[in-house]
Amino acid sequence: MSYQPTFPSDRWETVRALVVEAATTVATSTGLKRDRLMVIAAPFADWVVNVNGYPTTTVVVFHPVMVRRYATRDDVAWSDTTRRTYRSALLRMSRALIGDVPLQFAPTTPQNTAAPYDDLDLHLLESWARGQSTAARRRSAGVVLALCTGAGLKANEVLQVRRSDITADRNGIVVTVTKGGRAVPLLARFEQLLLDSVADVEADHWVFGSPKRIKHGISTLTTFLYDTDRGREPDPVTPRMRNTWLITHLIAGTNMRALMAAAGVTKFEHLDQLVAHVPALDAPSYRKQLRAEAVAR
Questions:
Q1: d(CA 145, CA 27)
Q2: pLDDT tens for each residue of 35-74
Q3: Bridge partner residues of 242 (DSSP)
Q4: 224: closest CA among 114, 138, 118?
Q5: Strand (E) positions, the chain?
Q6: Which residue in 19, 66, 139, 284 has the fewest CB atoms around it within 10 Å?
Q7: Mind listing the pLDDT tens digit for each residue in 61-111?
Q8: In what order do the strands lie in the sheet containing 172-177?
């Protein structure tokens, strides 16, 4: 087989059988070239299964909602043409493999990407970050956990943070996301972890990975997380870290306009999934909050 994966070989082994079978089936029924289908389907399956934790089954991986989420990712610098190409090819595979399905989608894994880490998870992840085998790995792990879970940064944004973008004063820590020109206050819980992680980083150096690195591809960070030393800690997944930050603010009742500005979005994708993790109010609190909002107007 001529296809060579662009992601780690152990992850390829996890999805290889599914991808090969899917590409062969679709090529036979549609006349599309199998090699081209492999090139598109392999990283897609890797993203669904290895990055987001969904099961390795055709009906889940090639569900059209998964295709939509993949084609609208905001952590990759794809052109519009590339997005359309991927979406078109993957939707054709979806139709050939599982037929027409309703767009309503219920994840079949209990640990979906919207689910926040709970308090125990966060303690375990901090131990994971502080327990890496080298100082460089401890720094990078601590930076990822603090910036994604404490400031809601996306993986590609973490790659662009220099030490000078992190400022501290008596009111806490603020992280400047240069690409979006926004300043995000760090949750107090992660202040010490971030300060410890960047203590020896020079002002003009990157805080993640090699201080003078040139490569900024998202695979640099994804591969690092996948290869880190860990025992029974939950998998460190950056979209889930960001969702934990968002849900923390939703539970706290943070002003929605302020939260959207800090998150760098004009609309929230999958808001229904996030809100599902916000505890419901009891009847008296429900009435009190809604009445207060109406009176304020």
A1: 42
A2: 999 999 999 999 998 888 888 889 889 988 788 888 888 7
A3: none
A4: 138
A5: 166-169, 172-177, 182-185
A6: 284
A7: 998 878 888 888 877 888 888 888 998 899 899 989 988 765 444 333 334
A8: 166-169, 172-177, 182-185
